[in-house]
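PROTOCOL LOG
Step 1. Enter all chains and additional molecules of the complex.
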Amino acid sequence: MAEAPAPQGGSSLLFLTDEQLRKGIEAMFFAYRGFTADPDRILEGREMGRAHHRAIHFIHRSPGTTVSNLMALLGVTKQSLNRVLRALIAAGLVEARVGRRDRRERHLHLTEEGARLERELSDAQRERMRAAYRTAGPVAVAGFRQVLEAMMDDESRRQYEALAGRSG
Amino acid sequence: MAEAPAPQGGSSLLFLTDEQLRKGIEAMFFAYRGFTADPDRILEGREMGRAHHRAIHFIHRSPGTTVSNLMALLGVTKQSLNRVLRALIAAGLVEARVGRRDRRERHLHLTEEGARLERELSDAQRERMRAAYRTAGPVAVAGFRQVLEAMMDDESRRQYEALAGRSG
DNA sequence: CTTGGAATGTCAACAAGGCTGACGTATTGT
DNA sequence: ACAATACGTCAGCCTTGTTGACATTCCAAG
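Step 2. Run joint prediction.
Step 3. Record the structure below.
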């Protein structure tokens, strides 16, 4: 683990070696497994999957969002999203209200039961995140977020920042 | 939602608020998209997908690894893995050599062409990672890796560290 | 008022990549 | 000899993504 005694050249770009980059790549792979493990487990019994979790998350985050918005956010086709939404609506977790200004639009909201499930899912995911944050400490967390943000596509970063700006 | 305006107590645990955790969660979601985007694009034409990329990556990392090893590393069943390996072998990218000590085992190696594809894929992924690292800087990168490692399941962390120890 | 285009829903068909279960074969170790 | 191991394979299923085609509903512009 120790970072090799460094040939030194002022700024020391050792963190940009292929070795270091590869470790970062593998860390992303394994960490993402842990990241999704808890919600996956919770949804296992409920005949739902990760796609449902993502929809629930973003509907919770942006209540009243439209189907188009959600499509762009999740990066899937309307057909794919529609299948998920249909299941969520049938299960009584999500409500699709016809838009008042534009009645073609469907504004999506969580029902009380949907909100309960959302809380269960995000509690589990947050708990793992909290443990990781606590272990790593505030400085590490700041770096964590900086690197992730720099790794995003421009479009994703735009969406991420729009969400973050809303209440964070 | 917000954890109350910080009672303050020296160490400031503001980075553990639900808000901060949620931002971390969303950052992971969007960043992972970017993380996989480049290899996905490359493999698109080749009638291969992310599963093939993962297999190629770990065969490159651990030349001569067995099917069982790879199964454990990727966290998939042998049937799932077999489908991928069959395609890779048929495409002349991977070679399965019968074990010398134990001839039940198949030891997996990249062919020259497999190694070429591996390089193409990892170059693309590393390039994005490098850009992100460079933007964020060495301190951020250290934090990034710390948080990711803390986020892994124990089993994943074990595997990650076994890989890292091998040459990093 | 009519009509074009946008937003949405839905049907059908398909593919990737997971899964389980069952079975076969070669090989190894007891 | 026999049980266990490592691997391959067939069959079938699920989730979640894709395209293409088409209907509906509605806003807005001519």
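Step 4. Note key features.
The two ends of chain A are 35 Å apart (CA to CA).
Helices of chain A lie at 18-44, 50-61, 67-74, 78-90, 112-136, 138-151, 154-167.
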